[in-house]
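Job type: complex structure
Entries:
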Amino acid sequence: MKISSKIYAQALIESLEQESDLSNIAGNFLTILEKNKQKKKLLEILDLLEDEYARSKNSIFAKIYSSHALSLEKVEIIEQKLEKSTGKKIMSKNVIKNECMAGITVEIEGKLYDYSLAGTIDSFKKQLLK
Amino acid sequence: MESLGIDLKLLIAQVVNFLILFLVLRKFLYKPILDMLDGRSKKIADGLKCAEESEEKLKSTETEAKKILDKAEKEAKEIRDQAKSDAKQLHDKAITEANTKGEKVIKNAKEEALSLKESALISAKKELSSVISLAMEKVLGNDLDEKSRQTLTAKAINEL
C-alpha cells in the first residue's frame, strides 16, 4: 500500500516529539522509505514537514522569499501582519531567492503574495502585453 | 336599157364576175385573214390572261414572300430578343458572381491584414515588454544598492 507524503510528514513529526535521537529517527525514516520504494518522495515529505509541524502547533506555516536575509525584526513584523490577516499564529521561514531582486514574496497556505521587485517588473510586463 | 347606154349582157357578166370574185376572195382571202385575226385575238387574249395570271401569281408570291419575310423577321426578332435576354442574364450573373468573389477576396484580404496586424502588434508588444523588463532587470538588478534594496523591502512589508 502506498503511503501519502502527508502521512509520512505527520508520522515524522510525531516521532520527533516522542524521541530526541534525531539520527535514529532519520535512519529509521529512510529505511521505511526505501522498504516502501518511496525514496523519491523525500523532498516532497520534507517540504510538507514544515506545514504539518505548524499545523500540529495550531499555526500556519509561511515561506518568506527575499533576495537577502531579512532581519529578525522584519520577519516578526511580517508574521504579525500575517497573523492579523489570517487570524492564526504564524510560523515562518525566510528563504533566500536572488530572483526577487528586492522586496519580498510570501507563500502561505498554497497562495503566493508577490511584493518583490521582480514581481513588479513581471506585472509591468504583463500590463504591456495587454 | 340600151338607151341608157347599159349593156345588159355586160352587166350580167360583170355581176357574175363580181360574184365569182367575191366568192373566190371570200374563200381564199377573207376567211384566212379572219381566221388569222381570230387567232391573233385569241393569242392576245391568252397573253393578257397569262399576264394577268402572272401578275396575280407575282402578287401572290410577293404576298407569300412578304409573309415569309415578316415571319422570318419576327423569328429573328424573337431570337435576337431571347439572345439579348440570355446575354443580359449571363452578364448580370457574371457581374453578381464577380462582385461576390470580389467581396469575398476583399473580406479575406481584410481579415488576413487584420490578423497580420494583430500578430505583428502582439509580437511587437512581446518584444517591447521583454526588452523593457530585461532592461529594468539589468538596470535595477545591477545598480540597486543596499539602501534602495532595504527601502523596497520595507515598502513591500508595509504593503503586505
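Summary: Chain B touches chain A at residues 122, 125-126, 128-130, 132-133, 136-137, 140-141, 144, 148-149, 152-157, 159-160 (CB under 8 Å). The mean pLDDT of chain B is 89.
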